[in-house]
Amino acid sequence: MSVQTWTIILVALTFALYIGIAIWARAGSTKEFYVAGGGVPPIMNGMATAADWMSAASFISMAGLISFMGYDGAVFLMGWTGGYVLLALLLAPYLRKFGKFTVPDFIGDRYYSNTARTVAVICAIIVSFTYVAGQMRGVGVVFSRFLEMPVNWGVVVGMVIVFFYAVLGGMKGITYTQVAQYCVLIFAFMVPAIFISIAMAGNVIPQIGFIGTAEDGTYLLDKLDQLHRDLGFNEYTSGSKSMIDVFAITFALMVGTAGLPHVIVRFFTVPKVADARKSAGWALIFIAILYTTAPAIAVFARTNLINTVSNEQYSAMPEWFKKWEGTGLIKYEDKNNDGIIQYVADKDVNELTIDRDIMVLANPEIAKLPNWVIALVAAGGLAAALSTAAGLLLVISTAISHDLIKKQIKPDISEKGELRWARIGALIAVLVAGYFGINPPGFVAAVVALAFGLAAASFFPAIVLGVFDKRMNKEGAVSGMIVGIILMLFYMIKYKLGGFGGGTPEDWWFGISPEGFGTVAMAVNLVVSVVVSRLTSAPPQEVQELVEDIRIPRGAGDAHAH
Questions:
Q1: Do 442 and 509 touch, CB atoms closer than 8 A?
Q2: Cβ density class 134-161: b for 16+ within 10 Å, e for less
């Protein structure tokens, strides 16, 4: 059977499974819609968290980034994984004990202020939309290549599917769908990695294979370094980023992770505080399987790609090359009319442009794996993108229905009315996300990295100080969040999107890229929050006692002790 037939079969089967689960687990109450009724077992919640967390950026883009950036791509591995540890140890148990559904809900109650709640809602919506744009783009890339439809139509199909199960099932439907999606995406990521590792390094474990030797006895990484040198690229295993930028990006991704609303809400879906810790541990194990394999896939794909295309006849290119050319994600321009592909670092001579987002998806084709494996990777990419998109849409719809309408505009709204607003919010979110998917600002992982910067700049200080500093008051939190997010948005628009007169990397402040600037904006937020809170009156006594109470382990079995 052809790749397209296999893809249609596997994608149809997995979609039928997701929709079936959504119908089976559809939400009947707001508690089920927001936090799955709070009754998900830790191991399943760990799987769902891992799927929620590993978006199209992890599945499609991360290995692609590493395969082009080499050593520099490691910042994404360190930042995203480190942030998860930070979230699990520093915040999850305390937020779970506080017993609020959402981040704006926590901020609104902890800072005893509807202004704080509204600022948090706006920040949550900005972060979630920036993030979801990357997911929709990932869905479009997969559809365009494997179902041979234009990228924009791929985005539309993805929108319809996500809307169906996010709106029908709410958090309950999404949680059980994400367990299935985790199984699909991890299987799809590991099967080709194992096949290629056996073929290239004679080792069944990809994590060991890529640091091992190839058939000719040379180390794979040495071989790749040599290929890079021959083509004039930086050595694969040496970095070109400045140390301060590497630190800034890693730190921004870490604290951004710990401030991401759609990941934090996962810790409210388990029965008790101890389960929040357990599910964080399980999630870390499930995430590590993919994250330790990504560098291996990056090395295998890069080596195979260079060996396949460099100095080869264009007319002799395999079928996969022509198919990806059809999507516009590989472009060949014969500058010297000799019909031979010049793939080199020198921009004036180079004739081949490759979109980084295709490396994982094209990897099995480049390595000549069976058609069903190629189709499996397509299904895995869709599972990764859709699971995260669904979690983000839920954050947006909850922010609108629970934090804006119920808590502020119409406190006496009925349960039915609130559910209806949650579903209307999800519909609006899907439409906006689709627009961003069709007109994306940059490739998937870069867009996602900016979302982490925004989360770091806005939420992280407010949450951490809310848990650990009882003197922190509403004036401090609100001014910190506003200054942080405005500073990050300004930098992002100026240096990433060319607004405010634009700027080149030479103009970056302190030599820090837009992806790493969340670290600076977060530090400014922290300073502003602390200074303003010390210059204004202390929070009410009951709020100070509540903060003390969150940190005391007693009664930890009962999240609603207070």
A1: no
A2: bbbbbbbbbbbbbeeeebeebbbbbbeb
Secondary-structure class of domain 3-551 per CATH:
mainly alpha
239-282 pLDDT, tens per residue? 677 888 888 988 998 888 877 777 777 777 777 777 877 888 88
Residue 353: strand pairing partners: 331
Q: Which residue has the higher pLDDT, 559 or 408?
A: 408
Q: CA-CA distance, 478 to 37, in Å (whole number)?
A: 31
Residue pLDDT, tens place only, 321-350: 888 887 777 888 888 888 888 887 777 777
> How much is the average pLDDT of 54-67?
77
Lookup result for tokens 């119409």: 410
Alpha helices in 232-272 (DSSP H): 243-257, 261-264
Close Cβ partners of 221 (under 8 Å, ≥ 6 residues apart): 210, 211, 236, 237, 299
Tell me whether residue 414 is exposed, middle or buried, using C-beta atoms within 10 angstroms of its C-beta: 0 to 12, 13 to 18, 19 or more: exposed
Nearest CA to 82 among 258, 274, 283, 243?
258
CA distance to 159, 221, 310, 510, 538, per residue, from 238 (Å): 40, 11, 22, 22, 51
Check residues 243 and 529 and name the one with the higher pLDDT.
529
Count of CB atoms situated within 10 Å of the CB of 549: 14
Cβ pair 305, 228 in contact under 8 A: no
Query: Quick one: which H or E segment has residue 330?
Result: strand 330-332
Q: How confident is the model at residue 479 (pLDDT cuts 50, 70, 90)?
A: very high
Per 3-state DSSP, what percentage of the chain is helix, strand, and coil (rounded to 5)?
75, 0, 25
Q: Do 339 and 317 contact (CB within 8 A), yes or no?
A: no
* Domain layout of the chain by residue ranges: 3-551
Tell me how far CA of residue 548 lies from CA of 170, 279, 315, 431, 541, in angstroms: 33, 25, 71, 42, 11
The whole-angstrom distance between residue 27's C-alpha and the CA centroid of its chain comes to 25
